[in-house]
């Protein structure tokens, strides 16, 4: 049985970090990495959806990962999302990630063209072959990728000994239970939708990877601790408060990640820039939305963490 402990816990999805001209800022990447180390999270998921991966070049994604690894210095579990919409670029990123010493690579299926399952399996296996000494995580996000991980496709992928589990971001929490039951204890399923963190954990997820963890890591660490301790009434109350923050962040005109980055400036004095077009930056009318969300996080931290 594999040792999956390094993947169990709170793993924030790493945000894209830009300078004032909208170019990748390597000093800001290092600062964000150090922020996550200081917050005490289990690891980071680099160059995924929250990292705006589909708007970044292969070279930019390599530069980001290099800076994360250099700054983390082994203090974080690092999962690098390496999928591009062609196999060649994905393999290049996978080989680079292994050379950097990441713990695992991950990949969504190819998007736009709807490929048959055998072609998706071939794509994932070719990526994995480019990093033969590195764990592989399937990223299931059908609402964005346009294709879902089915039990038959998952069964086929488990023939690859490097596959260790699934980052499940589909909305039905039942999918987590299905993958857990199908795969057994030698695999890990990560809860993806942040709004159902405790539901995913209770039904079998071994940890979580989430896009809003980074703006309120203490609250998700507390949620995870409450679940582990079996204090489910408290966990439910905190989940509702976390969800209220998420709903507030999603109510802006600008993209949610632009709101998140404004909250980080407000609450943490951490400036990692805005978002890359075509994602919408904050509009003037969004500032009260971001300020309210930041205040909600501060209030929740005071309520839940003041005795710790």
The class by helix and strand makeup works out as: alpha/beta
Strand content: 5-15%
Strand order, sheet with most strands? 1-8-7-6-5-4-3-2
Q: Specify the overall morphology.
A: globular
Stretches with pLDDT under 50, minimum 5 residues: none
Number of helices: 12
Averaged pLDDT: 96
Helix content bin: 40-55%
Biggest beta sheet summary: 8 strands, parallel
SSE succession: EHEHEHEHEHHEHEHEHHHH
Distance between the termini: 35 Å
Number of strands: 8
Gyration radius (Cα, Å) is: 18 Å
Describe the secondary-structure layout:
Blueprint: E1 10-12, H1 26-39, E2 43-46, H2 58-72, E3 77-81, H3 87-100, E4 104-107, H4 117-129, E5 135-140, H5 142-145, H6 151-157, E6 163-168, H7 174-183, E7 188-191, H8 197-203, E8 207-210, H9 217-228, H10 232-249, H11 256-268, H12 287-305
Parallel strand pairs: 1-8, 2-3, 3-4, 4-5, 5-6, 6-7, 7-8
Helix pairs in contact: 1-2, 2-3, 3-4, 9-10, 10-12, 11-12
């Amino acid at each position: 049985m594999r040792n999956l402990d390094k993947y169990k816990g709170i793993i924030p999805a790493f945000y894209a970090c830009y300078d004032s001209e909208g170019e990748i800022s390597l000093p800001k990447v290092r600062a964000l990495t150090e922020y996550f180390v200081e917050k005490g999270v289990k690891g980071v998921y680099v160059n995924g959806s929250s990292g705006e991966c589909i708007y970044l070049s292969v070279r930019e994604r390599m530069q980001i990962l290099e800076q994360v690894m250099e700054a983390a210095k082994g203090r974080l579990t690092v999962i690098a999302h390496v999928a591009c919409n062609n196999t060649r670029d994905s393999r290049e990123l996978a080989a680079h990630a292994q050379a950097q010493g990441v713990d695992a690579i991950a990949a969504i299926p190819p998007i736009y063209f709807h490929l048959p399952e055998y072609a998706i399996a071939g794509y994932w296996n070719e990526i994995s072959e480019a990093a033969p000494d590195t764990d592989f995580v399937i990223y299931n996000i059908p609402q964005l990728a346009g294709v879902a991980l089915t039990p038959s496709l998952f069964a086929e992928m488990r023939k690859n000994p490097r596959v260790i589990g699934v980052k499940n971001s589909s909305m039905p929490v039942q999918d987590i239970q299905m993958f857990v039951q199908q795969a057994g204890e030698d695999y890990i399923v990560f809860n993806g939708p942040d709004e159902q963190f405790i539901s995913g954990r209770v039904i079998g997820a071994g940890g979580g990877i989430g896009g809003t963890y980074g703006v309120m890591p203490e609250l998700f660490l507390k949620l995870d601790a409450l679940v582990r301790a079996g204090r489910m009434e408290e966990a439910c109350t905190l989940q509702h408060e976390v969800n209220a923050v998420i709903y507030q962040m999603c109510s802006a005109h600008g993209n949610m990640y632009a709101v998140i980055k404004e909250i980080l400036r407000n609450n943490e004095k951490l400036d990692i820039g805005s978002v890359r077009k075509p994602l919408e930056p904050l509009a003037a009318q969004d500032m009260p939305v971001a300020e309210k969300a930041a205040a909600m996080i501060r209030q929740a931290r005071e309520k839940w963490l003041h005795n710790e």
